[in-house]
Amino acid sequence: MTKIVILTGAGISAESGLGTFRDKGGLWSLHKIEDVASPDGFSRDPDLVHRFYSARRQQAAQAVPNAAHAALARLERDWPGDVVIMTQNVDGLHEAAGAHRVLHMHGTLSGALCANCEHRWTHRRKCRLTPPAPPVARARPDVVWFGELPYHMDEILTHLEEADIFVSIGTSGQVYPAASFVQEARMQGAETIELNLEPSEISAAFTQHHYGPASEVVPQWVARLLPDPA
Ligand code: BV8
């Protein structure tokens, strides 16, 4: 059966009210990447980093999935073959929409990590990380910063090898290794589709493109695959 592998980026959550990174007014226009999304930035000013992620955690807690998240959850439920979502996003909107097979390659806002001993826990309160028992713990968000190895890479590469259809949704294709996934999939013979608001840095690598807001183009694409309404 046809295996569908989907990469999502910040654009799929934009209509749920969560800021993207590189669009006008995006997160990287408000903060320098190296200050809030790098290990050095965390060492220099952990409070700034905690404030940055606490604000995003509170925003994410108010956000609800949009029609694009719902369409992907329906595809996962009703498609006769394998569907895997690998997301660059740290929000939980895919799961909130009902998706189960979601790989968070850049971690999650709900995760916390001790910077000293790598102990992981789900933070107990929405807006603040509370360190685990050891007094020497240095709690940090369990997200993948620049210069850190993304999570689930072995599993992701296996899915890319097995993909019959690779779809990229709401990503600018500027961050690696995620931006290289389309080439990996193409080399294995997958059909490649870009669903985005506008052409991205990696548009030329795709054989199909559908541009527009994710809440429109994603349900339209899923409806073409699953013509019978659920
Ligand atoms: C690593 C943290 C190695 C969590 C993030 C090769 C070449 C060049 C550079 C590198 C390379 N390999 C590695 C690098 C360095 C670096 C990198 O890629 N730098 C870039 C800037 C050049 N990569 C890394 O450091 C990665 N690590 O490679 O490790 C390694 C190996 C061994 C051992 C140790 C290490 C780690 C990268 C992860 C960084 N963490 N986030 C968080 O705070 O969220 S990245 C951050 O940007 C996000 O997580 C997100 O994943 C990423 C990409 O952003 P997008 O999701 O694409 O969002 P963006 O705003 O850019 O675009 C939004 C898109 O949506 C736009 O196209 C827009 O048109 C569209 N859109 C907007 N609205 C809508 C819409 N589409 C549809 N509908 C709408 N309504």
Automatic annotation (TrEMBL):
HAMAP family registered for this protein in UniProt: Sirtuin_ClassIII
Residues bound to NAD(+): 9-28, 88-91, 170-172, 196-198, 214
Cellular component aspect of the GO annotation: cytoplasm
Keyword list, A-Z: Cytoplasm, NAD, Transferase
Domain Deacetylase sirtuin-type: 1-228
Cellular location(s): Cytoplasm
Annotated catalytic residues: 106 (proton acceptor)
Gene3D superfamilies: SIR2/SIRT2 'Small Domain (3.30.1600.10), TPP-binding domain (3.40.50.1220)
Catalytic class of the enzyme: transferase
E.C. numbers: 2.3.1.286
Top-level taxon of the source organism: Bacteria
General function of this protein: NAD-dependent lysine deacetylase and desuccinylase that specifically removes acetyl and succinyl groups on target proteins. Modulates the activities of several proteins which are inactive in their acylated form.
Gene (UniProt): cobB
Similarity comment: Belongs to the sirtuin family. Class III subfamily.
Residues binding substrate, per UniProt: 53, 56
Entry's Gene Ontology molecular function annotations: histone deacetylase activity, NAD-dependent; NAD+ binding; protein-malonyllysine demalonylase activity; protein-succinyllysine desuccinylase activity
UniProt free text on domains: 2 residues (Tyr-53 and Arg-56) present in a large hydrophobic pocket are probably involved in substrate specificity. They are important for desuccinylation activity, but dispensable for deacetylation activity.
Enzymatic reactions: N(6)-succinyl-L-lysyl-[protein] + NAD(+) + H2O = 2''-O-succinyl-ADP-D-ribose + nicotinamide + L-lysyl-[protein]; N(6)-acetyl-L-lysyl-[protein] + NAD(+) + H2O = 2''-O-acetyl-ADP-D-ribose + nicotinamide + L-lysyl-[protein]
Name under which the protein is recorded: NAD-dependent protein deacylase
